[in-house]
What we know:
Blueprint: E1 3-7, H1 11-22, E2 26-30, E3 44-46, H2 53-62, E4 65-68, H3 75-82, H4 91-98, H5 100-109, E5 117-120, H6 123-132, E6 137-141, E7 151-154, H7 161-168, E8 173-176, E9 183-191, E10 197-199, E11 203-208, E12 211-217, H8 223-239, E13 244-252, E14 258-264, H9 274-277, H10 282-290, E15 304-310, H11 317-322, E16 326-330, E17 341-348, H12 351-358
Parallel strand pairs: 1-2, 1-4, 2-3
Antiparallel strand pairs: 5-8, 6-7, 6-8, 9-10, 9-11, 9-13, 11-12, 12-15, 13-14, 15-17, 16-17
Helix pairs in contact: 1-10, 3-4, 4-5, 6-7
The chain binds adenosine monophosphate.
Adenosine monophosphate binds near residues 115, 138 and 178.
Amino acid sequence: MITLGIIGGGQLGRMLAMAAARLNVRTVILEPQADCPAAQVANRQITAAYDDEAGLDALAAACDVVTYEFENVPVSAATRLARSLPVYPPPKALEVAQDRVTEKRFLNACGLETARFHPIDSAEELVTALADFGGKGVLKTRRFGYDGKGQHVFREDGKDAAAVYERLGAVPLILESFIGFDREISIIAARGTNGAFAAFDPAENVHRNGILHTSTVPATIDTAARQSANAAAKAILETLDYVGVIGVEFFVRPDGSLVVNEIAPRVHNSGHWTEAACVISQFEQHIRAVCDLPLGDTSRHSDAVMQNLIGDDIHDLPRWLQEPRTLVHLYGKDEARPGRKMGHVTTLGQALRRMSQDC
Ligand code: AMP
């Protein structure tokens, strides 16, 4: 039997561990928080910080292969583990995804379009960069940003640049040109140890307050956009010599062309619909890839809408439990704090798309 180490104990680790169990893959979670969502369903937890050397060595001793469920795993931890056992996706993918400037340079080197950007390390650099973008742009922290946190949108004249820099500028920043888009999509793709590639259908994503609200398949995009999303994911995976599942997010311009927003070297919230609308979910696909098993069939048997249950949304649970053709997935978290992802629901079928949009 294979034993898989998972760094990170959140809901993504939990769903990976559940998929692993079905394939007789044992799981060990490395996570400082006791009784975390992943450890509740895994074989074992090593309760230690992600960069704790004794914890990492215990993980290496217990496992045949290691993966991770979030992109801010310290690169030094992944590299330490990679000296004694395979770590998938490769630590290089973490390095690329952890810094928005490195990420954009990497994507551009893959021949993919991103927003134009300037690294920002002072208020003066911000003023100059805003002038280059006609006063519009999105200022983000280079590292550790998620769910729209650590961001500021300059809508027209770049005003208050100095004050905004004061608020965000204690850390390195990036100013991105503002992309006028019709919609946002993402694609979940996988690459196996033998170089095999497989992608799920792109999903159309709607955010609320910077957090993913719904993912809908099929996305309203044409065949050309579908093919470019697929080709972009393939180029990224091949360039990184990647093994595992990746999420790639795009803006879709009014003319249908794609701009890559960011990559997530892990299973992704916008791929949760796969557990209800495909025979093989993104979670099982990741387990297959990193455990050197053949990749699974990514075809979709139903249209679907996935909706996150965030904070107080969890109080709608009794209603969701009665919805037909709806899969409810909860994450084992007690306290419904604002902005906290408590679970998600996926409803199958076209008609139900309307229902989800009404919520
Ligand atoms: P991110 O944290 O990079 O995923 O950004 C959060 C959200 O902000 C995205 O889903 C978009 O809706 C919006 N956004 C981010 N970057 C840009 C950009 N360069 N142009 C326009 N909108 C953006």
